């Protein structure tokens, strides 16, 4: 354990150094059974994921089942206050991901006259594969007036672009942007909520929550050991996602390389978040045949149209007996495929959400899309431009929130999130 | 399996009649370990809970970990449309709780030209102890103008009162009321969401969603086999809750008895729902000592103040060396205790919620309180009047949504939800 971790009080008394998982983040996780009728294989999903390493955890870590994502705006004006917060957050994140209470006094053992240093709702719960991942938005480097807020304007990466307007965008500013993003993922929602809530508590006076989003079912696999889950359209999603086993491809598509720069981003990745509202009531009245033509896959099997198995390669030239393409030219699977995007891919780890109803008798439901990549200018932006222009799925979805964040490389013991950005 | 169930397509092909749990609903469930440091005991939480029985499932069923609650307003004007919907809903609920697709064609096997009869996002997922529980609100019997909407005005139970205004109530009408409430609980949130979403889909043209609420962590135990979870104040909650093992007490406090009437409610129970916003940012800056004085229990142990163990009886007469009460007169545990409420108790099965942020940099978080009882006039109403008047906890909470519903007795095979109300 690091020096930060050893300060914390174990939530259950059994998470010592021996409990730490390897740096690649391949801890146990739950694998939902496929439609074929296999029994579900529940592996251990209670253990910790190592916080330190060459990359931040929570990117290639096999996608956990629950999300609490929040962005924060910095309300402090001093560079020193931001640095102090990042140090305190890093120490707290190391403790929480190890399944420990924050701080010297913990949730319940402090002196009675002071507030507890941990809010306590995770007492008794295991680490539950908690990962906490940080990213910095464009507004962290320069404010709307172009001012160098914290002396880091010159360090803004060229790849951290302001996202362009995409056709059909219907963005709510209150669900978009943010100076700092924090993604907390866990197999236990209470553990993920506890993480964001305590970071918000620690940040009081320095940052304020801009928006917060819970997600309840992962919509992508990030490891070949995971089965492909279903999104709220009822389709398997993310079959062709980048996965942690694709080590060569991850260097090409996911991790910022030394030649890309800036230095502080090497080993990091760019996150694009999109809150995508699904008009599921309309989708649910669409025929099965049309649903499959729009997606380009079978609903039951997840296989590309014309194929039998989910993982069969898509044949974009195959034609039906009447001469039309089996996988339509405006289908989602085709427009999003690397073959039609100059080879660009994304590592997606989005979540389903249902946030009550919308006042019109419909569920406020959809996909909270999260995608990591080496360079959004070559990956998310052109892919989304093509999808926004031509994807038939656009009749059933609406992008209502958006964010882009530079997520630095991993944290080594003794350093803090973004240290290289400030030194 | 019932005739309804046998129509459905198994989501995994392995949930036959042998898979059905007993009527009391004591299927497997996850038990979180207590703070003492025991390892978590994960029992099987994937199986089905029997839908039919003398009482509706989802009341004394050991509380599942996830909630999707929704209320619906009836938009149809004909009694026959309501009866037809209740029949269709009952059949769908029997199938979904058994882990089956709805309808003859299921999610993915239908003829391509028709919409699937199931939305499909639960394909491949187990039943996950899904329960679906229905209740009818005052407005189902009589509209705001006093009209007998569906010919059932005379059958409105006297106990189904319009809740009075409680001191401090700050209710949002868009999160209150509703003609029909449906509570879906499961250990898998996607399964709970699938249930509400498909009932909404089936109800299109007859009902519209009024509001919907997801909850992510049970805040009460309803069985002695479950450990007591923690709420977002970090405290164990519901230690003294009514539990399914308290069979005699359940007849006195939970289930409507033949002498209570009306006939159609015998074996049923009344549900009060309250969306209780917690101002956790303020709570988190309160000292541990004050937190414990407000609740009346230790934060770590959950034990009543002055005692060592969570399940020790509260001693309301114990005094400290300076002569003040160990458990303060305005503490939550005292004001809510049966001893100070003419013996009245509730079966609580509420859930934590975090619904993003509130636009002021704070999490929109709290407790979605759900309590079942034999007669709200003798139970929830007087208890809440006392709490609203004197509970010190009121400085940190705000009731922002409210509902009351008459939940009929259990469904027998071949009948439908509320059949006795319409015959």
Key terms:
globular, 9 helices, homodimer, six-stranded antiparallel beta sheet, four-stranded antiparallel beta sheet, alpha+beta, disordered N terminus, 423 residues
* Tally of individual domains of chain A: 1
- Helix count of chain A equals 9
Overall shape of chain A: it is: globular
Range of strand content of chain A: 15-25%
Helix percent band of chain A: 10-25%
Structural class of chain A: alpha+beta
Uncertain stretches of chain A: 1-6, 13-43
Quaternary form: homodimer
How far is it from the N-terminal to the C-terminal residue of chain A, by CA?
A: 25 Å
Question: What is the ordering of alpha helices and beta strands of chain A?
Answer: HEEEHEHEHEEHEHHHEEEHE
Please give the number of β-strands of chain A.
Answer: 12
Mean pLDDT of chain A: 88
Largest interface: A-B, 86 and 86 residues
CA radius of gyration of chain A is 22 Å
Main sheet characteristics of chain A: 6 strands, antiparallel
Give the helices and strands, then pairings.
The structure is a homodimer of 423-residue chains.
Chain A: H1 3-7, E1 30-31, E2 41-42, E3 66-74, H2 79-97, E4 131-136, H3 138-141, E5 180-186, H4 189-202, E6 207-215, E7 217-218, H5 247-253, E8 269-278, H6 280-283, H7 288-295, H8 332-335, E9 347-348, E10 351-357, E11 363-373, H9 380-390, E12 397-407
Antiparallel strand pairs in A: 1-2, 3-5, 3-6, 4-5, 7-10, 8-11, 8-12, 9-11, 10-11
Helix pairs in contact in A: 2-4
